[in-house]
Every structure is written in structure tokens, then in C-alpha cells.
Amino acid sequence: MRVIRVDGKSLTLGEFRRIVRREERCELDSAARERIVTAHRVILDTLARGEAIYGVNTGFGDLARIRIPDEQMGSLQERLLVSHAAGVGEPLADEAVRGMLLLRANTLARGYSGVRPELVELLLALLDADLLPVVPAKGSVGASGDLAPLSHLALPLIGRGQVRLKGDLLPAAEALQSCGLEPLVLGPKEGLALINGTQAMTSLLALAALAAHDLARIADLIGAMSTDAVRGTDGPFDRRLHELRPHPGQMASAANLWHLLQGSEIRESHREGDSRVQDPYSIRCMPQVHGAARDLLADVEGKLAIEMNAVTDNPLVLADDGEIVSGGNFHGEPMALAADILAMGLAELGSISERRIDKLTDSVFSGLPAFLTEDPGLNSGFMMAQVTAAALASENKGLTHPASVDSIPTSAEKEDHVSMGMGAAVKLQQVVINTRQILAIELLSAAQGIDLLRPLESSDPIEALHKAVRRRVPKWEEDREMAPDLAAAAEFLDSDIRPHIEALR
Questions:
Q1: Is-contact 209 304, C-beta < 8 A?
Q2: Which partner for 39 in 59, 95, 317, 443 could form a disulfide, CB atoms 3.0-4.6 Å apart?
Q3: Catalytic hit among 52, 54, 173, 265
Q4: What is the DSSP string of 264-321?
Q5: d(Cα 459, Cα 447) in Å, to the nearest integer?
Q6: Could you tell me the residue ranges of all domains in the chain?
Q7: C-alpha 504, offset from chain centre
């Protein structure tokens, strides 16, 4: 298994994906270790001079005016973790927690936080052992970063809290011992350095961006199948049209759709004498809508590339200058806005997909049997599948109300403007799930439409997709329980779609 060197500066989204999926391991880079040691020495030297350092020998937030005696500095850091571990709600998924461990280690590896290297190495040891802290999803306003989620993430480092290990829920101390690991006694600033930052919201946003990267291509693939199933035209996907409005996402989506439809017998069968002058927007404007979502995603990926390698702690140790400076790099606004905007883009992929499902099930438009069943009346066919898609599309509309425009002051008004970035990232996960399910419903609908046009065949890539889907879900001959088919289609998009989208832009 390949080993990634965690240096705080070069982590990519692709490496993030492979590490959280346990396809690659990671270790602390040796040069990063030296930087960490240097910054830690600055903390010790400053304390030796008797100077006040926020969160090291003072209280936190509105309690910063209170000086902490030297002999209580270790206790201060431990009490910070336990008091701030105030999360509630369902625990975050394993991949999200792995991402948090990786991102927290990566930001500390930059060498601006003043911690010992042993702290970073223990974070990476938890990741390597897949010893995953239980992190409740709710309780962060994204102000001094994700204080509550990161506190839960850090508790096992001091032998507290609960973890998941090989599917079992265990006390952290017991799990550490079973993995041959020792808890740490926190030194100056180490508790604060563990919890100041945006790694919870950034991990969730990175996972959503990875899913969105696939969903954008999936939308083109399934949209092409729907276009053929309703006997739409490939004219609107002509490259020459899109060169006149060359948004990158639009160009890529149009190229995919054009490529996917070439060689289709269905398309050739109605090329001459087609009475439909123009297709509805849900067919004709796919490049414009899918492409706009792609462009939003590209912007989010750019922000993630920065944030995953950013220093988000406070105060920061500027070792070259021998200074410790307080600031606000922990504020989650960049990630909050990115999560909100990505949710909107994904919701649009789902919204236009639902409209294509409607066109497929509407016999007046499609010319196919009503609700895609050969014996309508006795059978209801895909009637309720479209209703389910409509319900999910409507739910997405509520979920895309931006969390980032809200702010509730906290910490006795010391934190008087907060980002709500974690809330934005949490609801984004549901938008991903809903949009994937809508596209799965469209996939089954379009595949049924292709079946109803036999013996005509579609293009090679669409036929390959159709064949793969039919290995999971058989043709709808007569009414049966719909829910298992919808679940199987969603699972197909989550696990088996990659060979069909690898060649797409």
C-alpha cells in the first residue's frame, strides 16, 4: 500500500479520497517533524520568559483575561477538550472521521501550532489503526472552527471518549491499549491546537465534492440515455453552439452528451421527418444546467485545495520571527459559503433530472406507454417513482437555503459573527444522497424507455450502461414492489458506475 507523506502543504483531494477509503496509508514527513519541533520550542521559550499566551496560560474566549498558573497549564488543556466535547446528534460516518484525523494532522504538520510531533503522530496512528473517535454531527457554529466536533475527535488522544474499532463501540482507553497505543498527557497549547480549525466541515465538504465530481458525469450519462429514450435530438449538444458561450462546464457536458449519443439506431430512426421542432429545456439545456453545476464544483475544489493545506489554528507560532500572533484563521466562512453553493449546484442536477423523469413517464410527450408500462391501468408502472423524485427534489430546495447567511453570537459575544459552516456541510450530505437517488430513478426510467423501443438499439456506451443496470434490476414487466429497485439503482450509482463514466469529461 502506498504511503503518503503528511507535510501540511501538498495534500490533494485525490489523496484525501484514497486515504479515507483506506486505499493508501500516511506518515508524518520528516521535514514537517522538524518544523513542528521548532515551533514547539518557541512556545516553551516564550513561557520561560513569563509572557502571556492566549489559550496557553490564559483562559479561553471571554475568559482570556484570566491568567493560569504554570502548574495548571496541562490541566487547562485537558479540561478544554472535555468541556468542549458538547456535540449531539448522530455520529459522523467513518470516512468523514478519517478525513478529520487526516486534515487535523496535516494542518498541525505545517509547524505553526506549537505542539509536539508526538501529538501529530498519534493522530496518524489512530488513522492507520482505523481507530475512529465517535464524533456527533451537531454542535458547531463554525466560529473558532469546529470546536465541539474536533474536541470529540481529540478525546481519544488523552484516553477519553468513545471510538469505533472494527465495527465495535469501545471506550477509547481500552481501544488504544488493544492497538498498542498510549494516551498523551497534553502539554502547553496542545488541547487548543487540536480543536481550533475547520477540519470537520472541510472533511464533509471534501467528501461531498468527490461525490459531486461523479454525479456531474453520471448526470450526463443518464441524461443521454433519457434523451434517446424520449427520441430527443443531439443537435443542441453540437460543439459549435457551445464554443459561442464557452463556459468550461457547459463545454464538457455538451461534449459528453454528444459523444454518448453517436451511433444510436434510435436517434437515426427519427432523424428524418421528426415533428418535434425543439426538445424541452430538461433535455435541450442539459449542457447549460449540468455545466453550471460543474463550474461551481470546480470553484469549490479550488477552495478545498487551499483549505486542506491551510493553518487554521490560533494563536499561531511564527517560528522564523520568534512571535506568537492571534488571528482568525479558524473562521469557517470560506467553507460555509462553498458548502452552500455546492448544495445549490447539486440540487439543480436533481431538479432537472426529475423533469426528465416526468417527460419519460408522460406518454403524450414521449410516445412511450403511459408511466413506462406496457399494460397501463392494470399496472401503475413508474407513476410513483416520479412522485418520489419530485419529493426529493422539493426537499433539496429546503436544504439549499444557505446556512452561511445566519449568525448567532456565542461565547459572551466574543465570537459575535459565526459561519455556520458545519451546518452547511451536514445538510450538504443529504443533498448528495437525494440527488443520487433522483438520478437513480431517472436511470431506471430511461432504461425502461430503451426497453420499450426495442428492437432499436442505442449507442454503444448507453447499451453498455443498460446491460449493467439490467444485471441489477430487471425490466418492469408488471407491477412489483418499487422500493427495492430504487435502492438497488442508487447502490449501482454508488458502487458500479465508475467504468461507465471514466471516459467522460
A1: yes
A2: 317
A3: 54
A4: -HHHHHTSSS----S--HHHHTHHHHHHHHHHHHHHHHHHHHHHTT----SSEEEGGG
A5: 13
A6: 3-197, 204-315+331-501
A7: 21
Cβ–Cβ under 8 Å, residues 422 and 142: yes
Flag whether pLDDT at 109 surpasses 80. Answer: yes
Peptide bond preceding 188: is omega within 30 degrees of 0, i.e. cis?
no
What are the φ and ψ backbone dihedral angles of 41, each rounded to 5 degrees? -65, -35
DSSP 8-state assignment for residue 410: B
Residue 213 cell numbers, joined: 465530481
CA distance 124 to 110: 15
Active site residue 112: no
CATH of domain 3-197: 1.10.275.10
Cell triple for 312: 487554521
DSSP per residue, 79-94: HHHHHH---EEEEPPH
> Residues 300-351: pLDDT tens digits?
999 999 999 999 999 999 999 999 999 999 999 999 999 999 999 999 999 9
Residue-level pLDDT at 413: 82
Mean pLDDT of the region 214-227: 98
Q: In sequence order, what are the beta bridge partners of 410?
A: 415
Whether the full predicted model's pTM is greater than 0.90, yes or no, is yes
The set of residues, in sequence order, having a beta carbon less than 8 Å from that of 310 and lying 6+ positions away, is: 107, 329
Cell numbers placing 407: 449568525
Distance, C-alpha 389 to centroid of its chain: 22
Q: What is the CA radius of gyration of the chain?
A: 26
- The domain made up of 204-315+331-501 has a fold known as Fumarase C; Chain A, domain 2 (1.20.200)
Nearest to 234, CA basis, from 264, 204, 214? 264
379 forms bridges with which residues in the sheet? Answer: 376
Spatial contact of 204 and 177, defined as CB atoms under 8 Å apart: no
